[in-house]
Amino acid sequence: MSTLEIKDLHVSIETENGPKEILKGVSLTVNTGETHAIMGPNGSGKSTLAATIAGHPRYEVTSGSITLDGEDVLEMDVDERARAGLFLAMQYPVEIPGVTMTNFLRTAKTAIDGEAPSLRHWSKDVKSAMEALKINPEFANRNVNEGFSGGEKKRVEILQLELFKPKFAVLDETDSGLDVDALRVVSEGVNRAQEQNQMGTLLITHYTRILRYIKPDYVHVFVDGQVAESGGPELADRLENEGYVRFETATAGA
Ligand code: ADP
Ligand code: MG
Ligand code: MG
After folding, report:
1. Is 3.40.50.300 the CATH number for 3-253?
2. Which keywords fit this entry according to its UniProt record (predicted)?
């Protein structure tokens, strides 16, 4: 078992008016095999948490720690994080002109594993993962993300998840902009990665919709840069019915 541990994490960004603290002491422990849903209102800092785990240079950790099996993640550059077994969906969001999906996937897989995947298995793995995600085979020869729709980008994100076999995945708003069919296909991909590789997942979402397809073991409500409440799946049901009003009121009155 591996453990991703976030301890009393404080993160600031630089704004025109000086530094602004966005994360105000986040603590969270995720073991491999577990799915943690992070839910919260817009602007509560969910994407900031994802970007900080990803190592985005804009976000400054002012105190606290992120460790993977005791190793200091904050000391690692972005590539080292991937090699350590972290999958960060926003890591490769960009269009890469002149680089086909096939070449990109193989190059990234080689960088992550430290050795090239065996040719014999690799092509087969790519093909079957693409089939499972209902990605048109012609995508293999297209340039990375060039002209991809929102839904296509999400599928390709999950394709990477299935092929790279990370220990932990941080998925930020994977459900946004997906119609029901795409949501089901994408969710099944995440579930396969969890079952086959005992992946631990941080599933960040504003809406409960995706939780019909990906069942969380734990649910954390994020409000104003902190975990306001943690619980089991029943907490998501409660949010589905009540929304975040209860928490917003608590913040406003604090
Ligand atoms: P969420 O993903 O929960 O909607 P974010 O992490 O995107 O929340 O944002 C949290 C807060 O930080 C918001 O108030 C947002 O305006 C602010 N923020 C985040 N990133 C930036 C940025 N790059 N520039 C200015 N403000 C930012
Ligand atoms: Mg603190
Ligand atoms: Mg966000």
Report:
1. yes
2. ATP-binding, Nucleotide-binding
